[in-house]
Amino acid sequence: MSRREDDASTIPETIVDRNNGYSYIRRRFFGKGGFAKCYELEKLGSGVIYAGKIVSKTLLLKENQKEKMAQEIHIHRSLEHKNIVKFYGYFEDTHNVYVLLELCRKRSMMELHKRRKALTEPEVRYFMKQLLEGVSYLHDLKIIHRDLKLGNLFLNDHL
């Protein structure tokens, strides 16, 4: 069975938020992290597209795993900064927890690095300034990211 078929069997093509009745169509697969799989999710009827971070509840069986997920949601929903991916909401069904995030169409710094191999000094200054502004905002709130890496630095349409 392919990875795509495996994903399709555990994550429905149409995802329904039972709290408000909104439905989302699972589109393009972006990748997978420690706990989550990330897909493009389109909200039916509006055409709004999100990055959907989807966590299987089979990975949240231990109490500390549930607490970690709840803490991540609690912290991310409280953040509002131009250099931090926007949090739009979350919901769950019997199998998964769905987190709706800003879609960063330009993908990540890791993908930019793979494509370009090198950046110019002005580009590095530009990106570093944004990174440091975001980290400074977090530190002002006494929050430590703990997983800063190229794959977690996302680029939106405004770079």
Written description of the protein model:
By secondary structure, the protein is of the alpha+beta class. It has 2 domains: 1-103, Phosphorylase Kinase, domain 1 (2-Layer Sandwich); 106-159, no CATH class. The chain is 32% helix and 26% strand. It is built from 4 helices and 6 strands. It has helices at 3-10, 63-77, 109-116, 121-140, and strands at 14-16, 23-32, 36-43, 49-56, 87-92, 96-101. The protein has a 6-stranded antiparallel beta sheet, with helices on one face. A hairpin with a 6-residue loop joins strand 1 and strand 2. The longest helix has 20 residues, at 121-140. The protein is globular, with a radius of gyration of 17 Å. It starts with a helix and ends in a 19-residue tail after the last helix. The model is unreliable at 1-8 (pLDDT under 50). One of its GO terms (cellular component) is centrosome. Keywords: Kinase, Transferase. Pfam families: Pkinase. This is Serine/threonine-protein kinase polo. Residues 24-159 form the Protein kinase domain.
